[in-house]
Amino acid sequence: MMVHYANPSYLASPQTLDPGAIESLVYANTSHGAVLVAAMYAMANNQVGQAPPMPGGCLTEWHVHTNLCFSNTKGVVVGAEHNGLCPAGSSNRVTQPMLHVWLAPVAGGPLTVDASGAQITAAAAQLPAPSPPNPAA
Q1: Domain residue spans in the chain?
Q2: Low-confidence residues of the chain, pLDDT below 70?
Q3: For a designed S-S bond to 62, which of 13, 52, 73, 100 qualifies (C-beta 3.0 to 4.6 A apart)?
Q4: Which residues pair with 120 in a beta bridge?
Q5: The whole model's pTM is what?
Q6: Which long-range contacts (CB under 8 A, 24 or more apart) does 61-65 make?
Q7: Are strands 90-92 and 77-80 parallel, antiparallel or unpaired?
Q8: Residue 92: its pLDDT value, please?
Q9: Exposure string for 51-84, b = 16+ CB within 10 A, e = fewer
């Protein structure tokens, strides 16, 4: 339902919360093609253990994922753990802290930690259809 398009050079950069260098764009697939639903900022891989910036105080909800499986050769997410196991050729890694800024009207507001796929798809359907339509992401 959703796809994150990450920019590896921005993910490697120690600069955080730069609107000119967004680490990942999140698209939802809808009946009218892929729709941009969020910007995702992330701490750089070399910033392990550092506290993320909190420009919005307690409204700035950084989070990590502990259940994602990354390809052992490409380093991209290939799925989530199921019964504690990752698909062949992948392994679990805890992500760096990340922050989603939702453009789609998800429940909980623009800084909601993680809306469900169904909530995101429903919110994406409320946004204007891209013209011309995007293909599926």
Answers
A1: 1-62+97-137, 65-95
A2: none
A3: 52
A4: none
A5: 0.88
A6: 61/99, 61/111, 61/112, 61/113, 62/97, 62/98, 62/99, 63/97, 63/98, 63/99, 63/113, 63/114, 64/94, 64/95, 64/96, 64/97, 64/98, 65/94, 65/95, 65/98
A7: unpaired
A8: 95
A9: ebeeeeeeeebbeeeeebbbeeeeeebbeeeeee
Report the C-alpha gap between 70 and 29 in whole angstroms: 22
Look at residue 65 in the predicted model and tell me its pLDDT. Answer: 92
What's the CA gap between 61 and 109, in Å, rounded?
A: 11
Per-residue exposure over 26-39, b if at least 16 CB sit within 10 Å of its own CB, e if not: bbbbbeebbbbbbb
Which tokens is 132 given?
């011309």
- Cβ atoms < 10 Å from Cβ of 105: 14
